[in-house]
Amino acid sequence: MKRFALRLCLFIVFASVFYTITILIFGIFMPASLAKNFDDFGGLGFTRRRMNDAAKIKGVDVIIVGSSHAYRGYDPRIFKKEGLSIFNLGSSSQSPLQTKYLVDKYVKNLKPKFVIIDIYPILFGVDGLESQIDLISSGLMDKDIVKMSFEMNNIRLYNSLIFGAFNNTFHLKKQKKTEIKGDTYIPGGYVQSYERFKFKKVRFTQKINISALQLGAFKKTLAELKSQNIKYIIVQAPFSKANYNSYTNNDEIDKMFAGLGEYYNFNKVLNLPDSMYYDDSHLNQFGVNVYNAKLIDTLKKSGVLNNVARLKPAGNMKNFQASNNK
User: TM spans, by residue (predicted)?
Assistant: First the structure.
């Protein structure tokens, strides 16, 4: 029996080492098309740069969290004109699970007085896998993201964790270029694009489904902000009418979010032409200019921005922006 137990332990050790080596080889050399359970490593939408920047900053007036609608929808330069420093913690396909992780990780250092939570309701029904891999492949590796990955229990995540741990330490593979043509990273976490909507994606009617797991994570994020006396609003940034109207239960979704805090759905406030989008889901710079102006005006009139620092950006953020613009 002892001999069997010893052999079993040796086999487990050998299998673990062999599997790890295989993952590293796949990660370095294997094309994504041939690696079924391994993602081509590299964060989307400047996630690595954004998170690296977030770690250097202490003190902003406002942070934004959410999906690509967030990091493509809120321009720090526009807010700066109103005397507000902001930092954008958006990431591609960010679900409420990842929003909670990022709020827990960065809010204490960024010390915002106010948080804009940008929601894309369809992401309340996903498993969060795409966003989790995006964060891991962008260099985020700590006990909380490992714990969350094991709770999600997916082979692609396990493979990403293994490769990510080694890649962060030994730099086995350069991060692939994932920027979309015309994208420019703006200090503060924003991604600027002047590209215009060139074609219309066929959209079929569907119902937005809300996962209990994702909604639970969202409510925990709100509770955490309340515990730190940080004000927040929940916002839907506008996306194309064809896309928005394809969802059959928008009113039901509005009612749910309105019950969780101050909520604005700008799809029902602004009627922007296709020329202000670069695809049917994201604003381009022309649209961002209009949307941000309307958002700031709305927040002023509602009194939401009362007691939020004004007139000049927080010192650390100002110095950070200056150093990045050299």
Answer: 7-30
